[in-house]
Protein: Small secreted protein
Organism: Streptomyces silvae
Amino acid sequence: MNKKLAAALSGGAVLVLTLSGCSDDSDNKVNDWAKKVCDQVQPQLQKIANANAAIQQQTADNSKPADVQKTDSAAFQQISQAYKALGSAVQSAGAPPVDGGETTQKEAVKELNASSVAYANLKTKVDALDTKDQAKFADGLKGIADELNKISTNGDQALKKLQSGEVGSAMAKQKGCQKPTASAPPASAPSAPAAESGSPSKSASPSASASEKA
């Protein structure tokens, strides 16, 4: 019942994780900016990877709805907090020292904060599902997976722009912006306080196989 949700999150790393390329042409100012961002990004990418892994673990057909709900709720909260922190990291780094850097930065921060709000809303919806009716619960999860697909496919243009060209090459060289391996206690017991509802690499671009059945 949680399989479609897991499928939607399977690619759910942040867009920052898609960075590749090792251009050495970036000047020192751009490299310094990338390091400033990526040093703050890595812990948040780890939280997202761990939250995704926790949802992946709750995909057995015999998983109890209450257990799935608890895991998914905690994972969405963790991802929401991570995206908010990613937005703060890009904001605090200032505009990248390239043409149009200020506009690119503002749009990326806006998208990251919007993703944070979107995942906080998913947490609220998971919390509201009826775990006593397995059929209704499965339908509810399907709807959430569909929303997750929309979050991942809408509005990531600014982040793609941030991670292109000279800035993208500089970020790709930073270890902090590279994909972490999930290691975690599952997200069911996040240590962070409840997600602030006012504000997820989105660096996130969870790609889903919509055809996979819940």
User: Anything to note?
Assistant: DSSP finds seven helices and no strands in the chain. Residues 11-26, 186-214 have pLDDT under 50 and may be disordered. The first helix runs from residue 3 to 9. The CA atoms of residues 5 and 59 lie 9 Å apart.
